[in-house]
Q: What sequence folds into this?
């Protein structure tokens, strides 16, 4: 856990908020970093910082202290493992962040932005290594699969094309042409009133059962049809449809072999916090939250 304490102060009266061995982070340094992180969060979520309540910002500030303390421990471990970050990866991410004039104004300190991006990529690489290091006993995977296998289900799915017509009579004409071996895709391109799918041979793609509420009759007919069959006309709010089912996947419960890798990843993710907390405990890092939430911390 992070250890709070009585914070030391530099000669310029800028109090220390994090102490890790010979590393000291001052309130001003952390606040500068917090402002960049805050703008990055706002950009990711598409929100305006000006519209946020000050209490929300202050709560984020408190959380950020522990977050950065954890980052410092992770960066220390990354250095110990000689994890290197590609400058190109940093350049690409920074370029994405600074993609607009507003962003360039918000992230005026590009050097600090680059450092934060560099640190985030480093920690991502370290996290991937730690996950790889975690060993999950096969028995744990088997046990979890047994417990949750009823939830490991791929739903019924059907893929189909359609030709939409304005009237039942027109749809029946389409059926006659198809019975006379007309090519479905070409006929859809020529006759379908659904301009969106007509250019793609009438292909509507694949749907899971229960995901076509707006076209419930579609679902009823499509899932009842055999693969390769042509059925219709089916009436909807858009018109009358002739449907060609070209793929069908039945409801399927994933076997242990099929689900093994995903379950193992899930168990590793569950154990990840324990490994990170162990690094924090061993590091001896100290935080001084009372120094960071002071009223003159800025923000």
A:
């Amino acid at each position: 856990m992070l250890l709070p304490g009585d914070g030391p102060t530099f000669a310029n009266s800028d109090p220390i908020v994090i102490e890790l061995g010979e590393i000291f982070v001052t309130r001003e340094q952390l606040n500068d970093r917090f402002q960049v992180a805050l703008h990055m969060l706002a950009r990711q979520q598409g929100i305006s910082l000006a519209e946020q309540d000050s209490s929300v910002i202050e709560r984020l500030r408190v959380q950020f202290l522990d977050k950065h303390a954890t980052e410092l421990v992770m960066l220390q471990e990354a250095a110990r493992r000689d994890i290197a970050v590609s400058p190109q990866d940093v350049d690409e991410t920074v370029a994405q962040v600074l993609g607009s004039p507003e962003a360039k104004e918000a992230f005026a300190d590009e050097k600090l932005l680059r450092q934060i991006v560099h640190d985030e990529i480093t920690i991502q690489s370290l996290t991937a290594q730690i996950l790889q290091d975690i060993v999950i006993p096969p028995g744990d995977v088997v046990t979890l699969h047994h417990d949750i296998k009823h939830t490991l289900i791929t739903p019924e799915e059907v893929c189909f094309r359609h030709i939409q017509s304005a009237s039942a009579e027109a749809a029946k004409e389409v059926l006659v042409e198809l019975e006379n071996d007309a090519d479905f895709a070409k006929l859809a391109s020529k006759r379908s009133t659904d301009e969106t799918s007509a250019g793609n041979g009438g292909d509507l793609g694949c749907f899971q059962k229960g995901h076509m509420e707006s076209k419930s009759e579609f679902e009823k007919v499509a899932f009842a049809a055999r693969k390769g069959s042509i059925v219709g006309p089916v009436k909807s709010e858009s018109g009358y449809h002739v449907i060609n089912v070209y793929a069908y996947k039945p409801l399927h419960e994933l076997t242990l072999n099929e689900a093994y890798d995903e379950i193992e990843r899930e168990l590793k993710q569950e154990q990840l916090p324990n490994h990170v907390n162990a690094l924090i405990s061993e590091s001896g890092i100290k935080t001084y939250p009372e120094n960071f939430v002071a009223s003159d911390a800025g923000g």
Remarks:
- The domain at 3-135+268-297 is CATH 1.10.4030.10 (Triger factor/SurA peptide-binding fold).
- Confidence is low (pLDDT under 50) at residues 1-6.
